[in-house]
Amino acid sequence: MTNVLDDSELQRILVVMAHPDDVDFGAAGTVAGWTDRGIEVVYLMVTDGDAGGFDDGVTREEMAVLRREEQRAAAKCVGVGDVRFLGYPDGRVETGFGLRRDIARVIRQVRPDRVLMPSPERNYERIYPSHPDHRAVGAAALDAVYPDARNPYAYPELLADEGLEAWTAREVWLSGGPVVNHYVDITGQFDRKVNALRAHASQTAHMGDGLPEMLRGWLGANAAAAGLPEGRLAESFQVIDTA
Predict the structure, then answer these.
(1) Which is a Pfam family this sequence falls into (predicted)?
(2) In this structure, are residues 103 and 16 in contact, taking their beta carbons and an 8 Å threshold?
(3) Tens digit of pLDDT for each residue in 131-146?
(4) What CATH number does residue 162 fall under?
């Protein structure tokens, strides 16, 4: 286990993810706990998820609009009202200066104490979190936290043209990676996690009643790994001190 900032010390948390629904699969229960404690949470989605879904009758432009709407609805389930999108093409995200600048801009706008993002590392034991977009966004977001957002001389146009002062986020949480050093008991927030995922109907409707069972399987395994009593459910993260 690692030292983790106490939630009572936090005012704002920024969640940076590649696609709509990423945060809800990985961390919606944890986010619900944060908002319950009065912490402001902001979502930043790098893509609109336009390459997702299963309906050939829906155009990619229509899918992008739909998935934005679904993410906003899912966010409301866990107490998040500020959802932002960068509009990068789904499936083609690359780590680069442009993406780092766009994420650093939002870090300076939101001024979060903690930033949650996908792990930039591939997880060979469970491959699904290691989508190339996830890893690219994780790498760019981690670079945006350190060194970009805190360095007043990185992307000087953010200060000169937009008045955005440098900002240091003190802690990063990585989701879906091969290393875990922190678990959050979300048993009390499980139903809201399920509701958030069901809001992504274009992605989850085909799972039907099997969705809660699937979630209980892997969240229960997390809880067991954390040493929690049987019947508890947990989300897992790697927490990094970036102060």
Answers:
(1) PIG-L
(2) yes
(3) 999 999 999 999 999 9
(4) 3.40.50.10320
